[in-house]
Design goal:
Layout: H1 2-14, H2 21-40, H3 51-78
Amino acid sequence: MGLLLGGLVVANLVYYEAYTLGNVVKPLVTIGLGWLAYWLVVRRLPWALPKVLEEFEQLIGIMSLVLVGLFWMVWSWSAI
């Protein structure tokens, strides 16, 4: 991870043309418009997402972790 972060820092130091005023303002305006839309529109909507989908997602996540664990155990036993 340190190597990847170091490469990212070095690449940004070399490619300083990316930090022009126009290239910095565009993402900041996009983020600002997203915040504005959230605070003015999305927060005032009366609907909520159903909890069934969240429970299903948690079930799929646990099943995936168990499956990875089982594959890891079988793989480590077959190496012996």
